[in-house]
Amino acid sequence: MKIAVVHNLRPGGAKRVLYEQVKRLSKNHLIDIYTFTSANDRYFPLNNLVSNYYEIEYSYPEHFPASVISIYWQLPKAYQKMANIINSGSYDLAYIFPCFLTQAPYILRYLKIPSVYFCPEPKREFYEKIPRISNKLSYTLTYPFRFYLKKIDVDNLKPANTILTLSRYNELNIAKYYNRKSIVIRLGVNTDTFYPQNLLKENMILSVGNFTLLKGHDFIIKSLSLIPKKIRPKLIIAGFGGHEQSYLHNLAAKLDVKLKLIDSPKDEELNQLYSKAALLAFAALKEPLGLVVLEALATGLKVLAVNDGGVP
Questions:
Q1: Cα(182)–Cα(165) distance, integer angstroms
Q2: Between vectors from CA 249 to CA 247 and to CA 252, what angle results, nearest 5°?
Q3: Paired strand residues for 95
Q4: How far is Cα 68 from Cα 142, in angstroms, rounded to an integer?
Q5: Domain 2-184 of CATH type 3.10.105.10
Q6: Cis peptide leading into residue 11 (ω within 30°)
Q7: Any one Gene Ontology biological process term (predicted)?
Q8: Whole-angstrom Cα distance, residue 188 to residue 276?
Q9: Which residue of 2, 39, 99, 187 lies most exposed, with the fewest beta carbons within 10 A?
Q10: Residue pair 110/34 in contact by the 8 Å Cβ criterion
Q11: How confident is the model over 209-230, as a mean pLDDT?
């Protein structure tokens, strides 16, 4: 099959899933990638895996109000341009990944070929109370201007012919919020990347996930502070982006918990952290799956996780 794969993702678990799926699909199918110049493809680069790699010009302004104006006006035009190229490209299928700006991307409205949308989660900010500290004021002030994104996400998803997701928990949420059926595909771990290493264990707890409070890092810090100081383990948080680094540092200092933050670790470093840690603590709130839990287990690391969301 000739497949057009579309994404506008930033670093994180969804980009890892995209990379692993494209790597496997490209063995038996002709794959072309379509993305924007604003997407960060330094993390799990795809250009060496596929037949063709196309970047459509789109520059996202990070600050309000230009950011919201761009999402409502410039972004759909850029996706329409992308769709026109795909529609004329003799593709059998378009495989669509989320857009970090709208979740379900505008391109689903404009495609004239069969489409499959991989939905790792709904646009959670409109369905859950998201804990925030560092950017709480700015987010609250701009929320009324962002609320229309909820409708955009729902309307963008409607034309998708098939929806894939990654857990039964998420399947139920898609039915609840979008009134659509979805197919659960079970994700795995690349055991060439994550595997047991004979490294000396340290008195260290590991938490992996973006530097946001959704990942429960603050809960882990507070929990560790209850352990007697003489035997209290240090905490390493490995993550990709987010706004709460300063808050986490200050909280750890206040509670006398030794903390180290590692931003954007490479896979080799992450595998070593799994191998050196005494335990992976996973406390994310309503996480759709928790891929890092599977990664840790693949290395032989014990996992202590919350019974919440789609955590396996």
A1: 6
A2: 105
A3: 5, 116
A4: 9
A5: no
A6: no
A7: lipopolysaccharide biosynthetic process
A8: 22
A9: 2
A10: no
A11: 97
